[in-house]
Amino acid sequence: MVNLIDTHTHLFAEEFDEDRELALIRATEAGVLRLFMPNIDDTSVEAMLALCNTHDGCYPMIGFHPTSVDADWKRRLAVVEQWLRSEQTFYGIGEVGMDLYWDKTYRNEQMLVLDEQIQWALEYDLPLIVHCREAYPELLEVLKPYAGTSLTGIFHSFTGTTEDAAQLLAYEGFMLGVNGVVTFKKSTLPEVLKEIPLERIVLETDSPYLAPVPYRGKRNESAYLVKVAEKLSEIYERPLSEIGLTTSENALKVFKKAEGSF
Q1: How many other C-beta atoms can be found within 10 angstroms of the C-beta atom of residue 213?
Q2: Which residues contact 14 (CB under 8 A, 6 or more apart)?
Q3: Distance between CA atoms of 238 and 233, rounded to whole angstroms?
Q4: Spatial CB neighbours of 85, under 8 Å, sequence gap ≥ 6
Q5: Is there a contact between 6 and 204 (Cβ–Cβ < 8 Å)?
Q6: Spatial CB neighbours of 118, under 8 Å, sequence gap ≥ 6
Q7: 4: closest CA among 199, 197, 249?
Q8: Domain segments of the chain: what residues?
Q9: I want to staple 121 with a disulfide (CB 3.0 to 4.6 A). Which of 87, 93, 152, 224 is the partner?
Q10: CATH 6.10.250.3280 describes domain 4-259
Q11: Chain-centre distance of CA 42, in angstroms?
Q12: Best CA proximity match to 110, nearest among 76, 82, 146, 138
């Protein structure tokens, strides 16, 4: 069995309320032994910590998702910051980023919120878990002043072009997160990944979303990460064991704080 790390799963979400413990067992049985959990916003922290603080191998992160930015964002972001500055241990700042797919109303506010959370990542020496949808120009604009800093992290759910990858990988402390999208029939990602070194890739599910083939359309879970690894084995023409080892090493380069707890 190949040991894998799911660098992005929302197992604390309500979609798992009926069988969360079983989902954890299924992940372990599939060889997915470490689960990194990005927070969503001020309303999700307690559910995430209730899970992570009672289960080995579950690592909480703290952040404010761009789609949660609304008219009350200052107060809500302050709640998240209080958690960050509490005695609770977090392993990354996330999920943060830019999302203009659904709504552009709070574009500028999203940029401000992202910038503040980048500063948290630098202050605490934690990796940044970055979500971006229909907003690459804005994301790169916010990131630009931090080029050359010690900032590290993951560009989560990468589905871009070779050119997008080059711009993102110019940030040398970052990896690209690859999930079930790579298994989709019409995905262009397999061709793009052939131009990207495996040493810059980490695996993720983004469960309960983006289930890989043959589970597409169903609820995703961490056990299905194996299907993503199998697809990468095919793309890179390397044994599954090597995919597991390399992507897990890559994850530990990002989540330095977690390394000692493995």
Answers
A1: 15
A2: none
A3: 5
A4: none
A5: yes
A6: 93, 96, 128, 142, 143, 146, 151
A7: 249
A8: 4-259
A9: 93
A10: no
A11: 18
A12: 138
Q: Which residues pair with 6 in a beta bridge?
A: 35
111, amino acid identity? M
Residue with tokens 């697809």: 231
Answer whether 84's CB lies under 8 Å from 90's CB.
Answer: yes
How many angstroms separate the CA atoms of 40 and 94, rounded?
Answer: 8
Token output for 250: 């890559």
For every one of its 262 residues, what pLDDT tens digit does the chain have, with 9 covering 90 and above?
799 999 999 999 999 999 999 999 999 999 999 999 999 999 999 999 999 999 999 999 999 999 999 999 999 999 999 999 999 999 999 999 999 999 999 999 999 999 999 999 999 999 999 999 999 999 999 999 999 999 999 999 999 999 999 999 999 999 999 999 999 999 999 999 999 999 999 999 999 999 999 999 999 999 999 999 999 999 999 999 999 999 999 999 999 988 765 4
φ, ψ at 249 (rounded to 5°): -60, -40
